[in-house]
């Protein structure tokens, strides 16, 4: 598939580019990433370069994983990343520390969910390592239903920490659901 650009009232979601490698590297060195994300650790520039030059373009070309850079304006600096995997139909995201708490991620995830459902997805899964309250807040605000706690689907290394899981069906309303961990 040819990559698409998505827009919201405040954001432009386009493709991560080589000019984003320094910011991706900086943001992914945040100690929060070591505990809550599947990104390599320690995170090095070569990881960002591989992500931008191989993972993202091949994901689009093979209709496997659609990844967007989140920006405030076209050509603007990277704020974070959101991706939608085709099989098993999941969503993942991260935001650079300086941009957290402003509602950007909820806005970006909502437009990606709309796009995925318009393209025919029937279900989108979400997961985060237990304790990642920021990720859970985004999923809850986007209407995901909490489905329980079990090991994370993919992780670096041999161990797999426990994760919170949720799902959103195409015909679900997007209202916040009860039953989320405190």
Automatic annotation (TrEMBL):
The UniProt record lists the keyword Acyltransferase: yes
Assigned EC number: 2.3.-.-
Domain of life: Bacteria
Keywords, alphabetical: Acyltransferase, Transferase
PROSITE patterns tied to this protein: GNAT
Major enzyme class: transferase
InterPro entries: Acyl_CoA_acyltransferase (IPR016181), GNAT_dom (IPR000182), N-acetyltransferase (IPR051531)
Example of a GO MF term: acyltransferase activity
Domain N-acetyltransferase intervals: 19-171
One Pfam family, short name: Acetyltransf_3
Keyword Acyltransferase: yes
Alphabetized PANTHER family for the sequence: [RIBOSOMAL PROTEIN US5]-ALANINE N-ACETYLTRANSFERASE (PTHR43792:SF8), GNAT FAMILY, PUTATIVE (AFU_ORTHOLOGUE AFUA_3G00765)-RELATED-RELATED (PTHR43792)
Family per similarity comment: Belongs to the acetyltransferase family. RimJ subfamily.
Designated name of the protein: GNAT family N-acetyltransferase
UniProt source species: Lysobacter korlensis
